Amino acid sequence: MGGLVNQRAFNDTFDSPSPTILGFIVSIMEVGAFFGSIANSIFGESIGRKKSIAIGVVIMIVGSLLQATAYQRAHLVVGRIVTGFGLGMVNSTTPVMQAEFSPKATRGLYVCMQLTTLNFGIVLVYWIDYAFSFHVNSYAWRVPIILQCVFLIPMLLLLIIVDETPRWLAAHDHYNEALEVLRRLNNGKISDTDVVAIYEDILQTVSIEKALGAGSWKDLLKNDEIQSQRRFFIACGIQMFQQLGGINAIIYYSGTIFQQSVGFSAGMSSLMSGFLQTWFFVASFIPWLLIDRVGRRPLLLSMVSLMAAVMAVQSALVRQIEMDTSIAHVSGIAAAAMLFVFEGAFTIGFQATVWVYPSEILPLRLRQRGSSISTAANWICNYIIVQITVPAVTNIGWKTYIIFAILNALWVPIIFFFFPETKGLQLEDVDRFFSGQDEHVTGERFDAKSTQAQIEMGGVDHA
């Protein structure tokens, strides 16, 4: 939507909204996503990962149709809220589903692959918006919106053939199904003995977390033996850091930034936005090679530090442009380059990590609920950033980038001191990590097979 709001066709249809109204129209989808994530935290765990995603996709299709048929601002706003609600459901469940399916050695890689397809969608949308920017009829903004359904409908078809995750099945007493899914996932990759060992480990974790009560709303804030409270705060924190660092100010409003901050013409701004998002897509292949080798923490610490430095430099460059100094032209070129560096640093260090990390950190019985709440935190911060970006760039100009520089700099010591490494750990191993200071939990509950697990394994052996 950010690439459409500056087009003549859009402004003719909706009577040239002010910058504040434009910010509201673009950002209101994030409010819908916030409530979709909250709703998913209430019923998502009970209905399962597949159904949560399917319901979200159907809601997104309805929202896309509402937006594409809008002639009034209120109609468009309602459509964006509906789309956002469905997106919040999908967005808060997909990382959980991926984490619960993926092997520990390549869990980060699979999330990187998924995010590369996301970035491909972003770049595709920008070039579609650019292609339609030369047209003046209302189809110039309606067609790009309705094209969402081209991707949403295949998602529904894919869900028909995808299994429910084995960890959700085990947590909800579908033991035989959980084992069969694990066998299908690992067919020909590891021995059946190793598959059963993984299954037994999952059952032990389920048993232990049930004993601790790690599953209700109050358990999110309970500082229990597996540190559920700390893990929930980490999951929410990293999601908020991602958005408050300013990435969606760049993605949503790159055209506006190129035009108002850098000083390019409207046509050149649209073209540069397309190139910027193309680079965003290309750069997203880099963490494929790094996230499961280097780890989450080194990528976060190095790239967030670079993002802070880039925003500081950007503020100085944009100030030269706004003051129309003797180096304004050169500063404009450099400022454009800084946006490319910023998006590259974000996708290498922050983008993949922030979506795999909460699902890795959270306990099994809190994973869907905690992930949904942390995703809701992401969306509400996204809303704040998208809502304020246009007024900020218009009213305080170069000082906008100082704010993002300071925020990114603040994240670095927090990540360094409080965010542990999860590279190479089974999801069940993360419970062991957080309970490592408690010998009773580590020795008695984890190292020995629980009675519950032994009973369930005996039942499967005779099934």
Named CATH topology: Growth Hormone, Chain: A
| Count of domains | 1
Biggest beta-sheet profile: none
Q: Kindly report the name of the CATH homologous superfamily.
A: MFS general substrate transporter like domains
From the spread of the alpha carbons, the general shape counts as globular
Helix/strand/pairing class, anyone?
mainly alpha
Global mean pLDDT: 84
- Binned strand content: under 5%
Helix content: over 70%
If helices are DSSP runs of H or I spanning 4 or more residues, what is the number of helices?
20
Low-confidence stretches: 437-463
Rg from C-alpha positions?
23 Å
Q: Summary?
A:
With 463 residues, the chain is mainly α. The chain is built from 20 helices and no strands.
Structure description:
The protein has 463 residues and is an all-alpha fold. The protein has a single domain (8-429), classed as Growth Hormone, Chain: A, CATH 1.20.1250. It has 20 helices and no strands. The protein has helices at 8-13, 19-47, 49-68, 73-101, 107-132, 139-146, 148-161, 166-171, 175-185, 192-212, 228-244, 247-262, 266-283, 296-322, 328-361, 364-395, 399-418, 427-434, 439-447, 451-461. Helix 4 packs antiparallel against helix 5 (107-132) and helix 11 runs antiparallel to helix 17. The protein starts with 7 loop residues before the first helix and ends with a helix. Residues 437-463 have low confidence and may be disordered.
